[in-house]
Fold this protein.
Amino acid sequence: MFVSADKDQSQFNDYHGEQPWPAFEFGTNAKDDLMGLFDVEGFPTFVVVDPDGKVICEDARSRVESSPKEFPWPAKPVEDLGVGMGIVNDGKLAILLTDKDPSPEAATQNFAQVAQAFFDEENKDDDDDGKIAFTQGVSSDDMVPRIRQFFGLSEDADGSSRVVVTDIPNRCKYVATKAEIQDAAALSTFMNKVKAGTAKAIGLQETPARE
């Protein structure tokens, strides 16, 4: 269903005329009601709900763009990079970068294990506050160099993976040391410190101290 944010009936007719799906009539309270219901902060927003009204996916726009065949786009423990960067402005996002790691299998497995544990725990309640999303960037992803540059990680030496948790709403990030990602237990401890607010935060574009 298309929910209009247009200024007048003419704009609504022109915009909706390009779309194949039905729409709420222009001038209804649908926009304001649904923005409040789904905590919409910007446009366009695409939310997927099941027939009972349960939210399947509240950030479906980036998922449609990155994985159009995965309808109805349920959330995953480790999201594709395109999805992850599509929600990076919304809260904390843990990013595993393996582009400089010649043997990233262990890092990928540890990251997936921790992500699954967080995913299972956070799905027990409907409160989004404090939730952390997980995504991974590999050497074949075009966005990885830009991610490294923006978050001050371009100077990482070759040979190992990097885990960074971005928190754009609070204009900071958390960068794990090598010791904090050496295994799943260490990474889990680091992530729980981030969630609890006890991990060390640095500026979004600040280069982390050399280890």
